[in-house]
Design goal:
about 260 residues, alpha/beta, seven-stranded parallel sheet, NAD(P)-bd_dom_sf, oxidoreductase, KR_dom, SDR_fam, oxidoreductase activity
Length: about 260
């Protein structure tokens, strides 16, 4: 809201009707929850991940349950050209992008720090950082030249509290935090750029965790548990919508009180 504009009804602040959102890593986990939430409040969505069939399945579900338009695009976040192609596909289909969620990520396991290969390092930084940088540069520049928009980078508490078992991942997410704040300054009032720093969420990836070890760790969180996937939705809708018109460069922890 500008200084001279009339106050808006708070119930309308989260309405995304008429807006277009890209979500990378959008076919599962936290990305899926954000796709479904944004479509539910009116946005048309571009769902991107490496697996086109998973994106198509979710796109069909969005169309059937919300009536919103949904485009599925196969794209690997570590591939520079794929990010170019994803941006072009979104603008070709919808003519604009109002919201970009850089959610694609991975954290490969390794035995010890000496066993971290160049391939693992490059892959981790490629998916978590390089792709987000390229897509933000492409889409954010078009947003700034048009009517503006909101970019949300999905970082991690690992960027604040790095552990020995996630060094490449933590480094990538720390870099993501840095470019979040740099891009926020790049486009000023036209394009808001913020990051969500999730803690431990009980997505499908958590099925492979040692349940006993995780329960012991989670007991040290303020809330004493991991997050449910749909608990990311409030933060995502806040940053995507007009509810956050004076928020940019923020690093928002959504971690249940994760203080190791």
């Amino acid at each position: 809201m500008t200084e001279n504009s009339a106050p808006r009804d708070p119930r309308d602040l989260f309405d995304l009707t008429g807006r277009v959102a890209i979500v990378t890593g959008g076919s599962r986990g936290l990305g899926r929850e954000m796709v479904l939430a944004m479509a539910a409040v009116g946005a048309d969505v571009v769902i991107a991940s490496r697996k086109l069939d998973a994106c198509e399945e979710l796109a069909e579900h969005v169309r059937a349950t919300t009536g919103r338009r949904a485009l599925a695009v196969a794209a690997h976040a570590a591939n520079w050209d794929d990010m170019d192609r994803l941006a072009d596909a979104a603008y070709a289909e919808f003519g604009k992008v109002d919201i970009l969620v850089n959610n694609a990520g991975l954290s490969p396991l390794y035995e010890n720090v000496e066993s971290i290969t160049e391939e693992l390092w490059d892959k981790t930084l490629g998916v978590n950082l390089k792709g987000a940088f390229r897509l933000t540069a492409l889409v954010g520049s078009r947003m700034a030249a048009g009517s503006g928009g909101s970019i949300i980078n999905v970082s991690s508490v690992a960027a604040r509290y790095p552990k020995p078992e996630v060094i490449p991942y933590a480094a990538a997410k720390a870099g993501l935090n840095a470019i979040t704040q740099a891009f926020a300054r790049t486009w000023g009032a036209k394009v808001r750029v913020n990051a969500i720093l999730p803690g431990s969420f009980m997505t499908d990836i958590s099925k492979a965790w040692d349940k006993e070890a995780f329960a012991k760790e989670a007991a040290g969180y303020a809330m004493g548990r991991g997050g449910q996937p749909d608990e990311i939705v409030g933060a995502a809708l806040y940053l995507a919508s007009d509810a956050s018109t004076f928020t940019t460069g923020a690093l928002l922890d959504v971690d249940g009180g994760y203080w190791p």
